[in-house]
Amino acid sequence: LHRQARREWGYGGTEDLTNEDLIRERYRGIRPAPGYPACPDHTEKWGLFDLLGVPDRAGITLTEHLAMYPASSVSGWYFSHPESRYFNVGKLGRDQVEEYAVRKGMEVREVERWLGPYLNYEP
Q: Is 2-89 assigned to CATH 2.60.120.620?
């Protein structure tokens, strides 16, 4: 997918990346994905799948735990900016979770459930 996106966006046409280069992320841009350290909230898949019509267009569905089916499926956001870098979200304080819940339109306990490993407090 990285190679295809790079060609379609017009900035990878002159690159000669091997599979090893792609695996080691030796290219411009990033593809963070829900559930990984830079984007730990799996619930972001709901919006992504809705926006893109994923079940109808690609036949990929989400389980009740937000795993993708079939299991070989991938999702994420592509950022092509040359200064894009991966990062990890650290531990979250209660105030951050409460504010995030407001922005997501979710109950705090629901956000805590999905982001449990990232909490810096006991819910």
A: no
